[in-house]
TrEMBL record:
GO terms for molecular function: RNA binding; tRNA (uracil(54)-C5)-methyltransferase activity, S-adenosyl methionine-dependent. Gene3D superfamilies: 2.40.50.1070, Vaccinia Virus protein VP39 (3.40.50.150). Residues 258-326 form the Methyltransferase domain. It comes from Pygoscelis papua. The keyword tRNA-binding does not apply. It catalyses: uridine(54) in tRNA + S-adenosyl-L-methionine = 5-methyluridine(54) in tRNA + S-adenosyl-L-homocysteine + H(+). Belongs to the class I-like SAM-binding methyltransferase superfamily. RNA M5U methyltransferase family. Keywords: Methyltransferase, S-adenosyl-L-methionine, Transferase. PROSITE patterns: SAM_MT_RNA_M5U (PS51687), SAM_MT_RNA_M5U_1 (PS51621). It comes from the Eukaryota. The lineage of its organism: Eukaryota, Metazoa, Chordata, Craniata, Vertebrata. S-adenosyl-L-methionine binds at Q236, E291, N341. InterPro entries: Methyltranfer_dom, SAM-dependent_MTases_sf, TRM2_met, TRM2B_chor, U5_MeTrfase_fam. This is tRNA (uracil(54)-C(5))-methyltransferase. One of its GO terms (biological process) is methylation. The gene is Trmt2b.
Length: 422
């Protein structure tokens, strides 16, 4: 049942999965065309689409492709409260259980192994799991990250409740001993992190990630470049798929030697590493990266220097604050191409305004893992007729080409790259 929830297409032969996703992307582009028609934009193309839709680009890796997995701790089907796995059920029906991920196709064996060892550790611990914060307990979720370089990072989240520093130090020492000297040594961890968290999600600034063992970073290679990854760094979950995606973005940008690429990172909490910009730097005259988390900018600068990339500049701050300021004084005559890859919350309205009102941006690549959500609102704002009331004065963009990438085999999701031009 877990496989049916997490990877609902797993029974379908992989060669048939892209067609299922193609049909869903087709409906999204038909909806966008209809919405634009309502705004007075003649957007209907053959098939009722707003632009040509290319076939879904398949993933180069089909099974075990995830480089990051998050495992919860909760009651298992057998009633054991210390079960490490993925949720099945709903809160409304009060039937949530935590099921081991052993049969889930998209999670690699190494992640399952670390989850199994973590379960073994907490079952031997006298401390309770933390399922509901107000009911006490301590052991919470586990994040496992792996790379094609053979590195493995484990991050354990722990609710301190009323424990003092000495008791906390004891728990950290026991966890480290288990993975460094005990049964957990089979995992061969490159990095073991511990985070004391009293919230559902904590940033490093709110509650620092504490390195208990190993290296502070793991490393990944993308298109011949090496990236260092921190515990809270955002990285496309399918590394092989990301390489195919970034290459396509480079081609769609139609970059000449004088092109400036604007890599607008709109993450919330996780650190986006400006990987798109850095991976395309060799094609461009200049890369400008914007990222909200200062630590991510540090990582991006380190990655640029390590890879010998000198044509990048990075701006730290919220995109809605930095971008309008940057573009309002833009006088560079070089072609300017923008790439946005927002979270599911979409782009902030002020980011849309800044892009729309900057005459120098003639090509925009909008990358979305959920184009039917908030991305739809963004696309309508970018493509609607000028609206002085909403401060959308610039010439509207038009959808020109859509390419879906299957970054998530066995699931119903894919990543859509929409080229907008004017």
């Amino acid at each position: 049942r877990l496989a049916n929830v997490v990877t609902p297409l797993w029974r379908l032969p992989y060669q048939e999965q892209p067609q299922v996703k193609y049909e869903s992307q087709k409906k999204i582009l038909q909806t966008l065309a209809s919405r634009l028609e309502e705004l007075g934009i003649d957007a209907q193309k053959p098939g009722g689409l707003c632009c040509p839709l290319q076939p879904v680009v398949p993933s180069p890796v089909i099974n075990g492709y995830r480089n990051k997995s998050t495992f919860s701790v909760n009651r298992g089907p057998d009633g054991n409260l210390k079960t490490v796995g993925l949720y099945v059920g709903t809160g409304r029906a009060r039937n949530i259980v935590c099921v081991k991920a052993n049969h889930v196709e998209n999670i690699p064996p190494k992640h399952k192994q670390v989850a199994q060892c973590y379960e073994e550790f907490i079952r031997c611990s006298p401390l309770d799991p933390c399922i509901l914060f107000h009911e006490g307990g301590h052991w919470r979720e586990l994040v496992v990250r792996t790379t094609s370089c053979g590195h493995t990072m484990a991050i354990v989240t722990f609710h301190p409740q009323e424990l003092g520093q000495e008791a906390l130090a004891t728990q950290k020492a026991l966890l480290k001993e288990f993975f460094v000297c005990g049964p957990g040594t089979v995992c061969a961890l490159t990095s073991l992190y511990f985070q004391e968290s009293t919230m559902t999600r904590c940033s490093h600034e709110q509650s620092p990630f504490q390195l208990l063992h190993g290296e502070p970073h793991i490393f990944e290679e993308v298109l011949g470049l090496k990236f260092r990854i921190s515990p809270d760094a955002f990285f496309q979950v399918n590394t092989g798929g990301a390489e195919v995606l970034y290459q396509a973005v480079g081609e769609l940008s139609q970059a000449g030697g004088d092109t400036v690429l604007l890599d607008i990172c709109c993450g919330t909490g996780e650190k986006w590493l400006c990987t798109i910009g850095l991976s395309l730097a060799h094609q461009m005259s200049k890369i400008i990266g914007i990222e909200v988390v200062e630590k991510a900018i540090e990582d991006a600068r380190w990655n640029a220097a390590f890879n010998g990339i000198s044509n990048c500049e990075f701006h730290s701050g919220k995109a809605e604050a930095v971008l309008p300021q940057l573009l309002s004084s833009w006088e560079d005559a070089r072609p300017l191409v923008a790439v946005v890859n927002p979270s599911r919350a979409g782009l902030h309205y002020r980011v849309v305004q800044a892009i729309r009102n900057c005459k120098s941006i003639r090509r925009l690549l909008y990358i979305s893992c959920k184009p039917e959500g908030e991305a739809m609102r963004n696309l309508l704002e970018l493509c609607c007729p000028p609206d002085p009331g909403k401060k959308l004065a610039g010439e509207p963009f038009a959808p020109t080409l859509a390419i879906p990438f299957d970054m998530f085999p066995h699931t119903v999701h894919c990543e859509l790259v929409l080229l907008l031009t004017r």
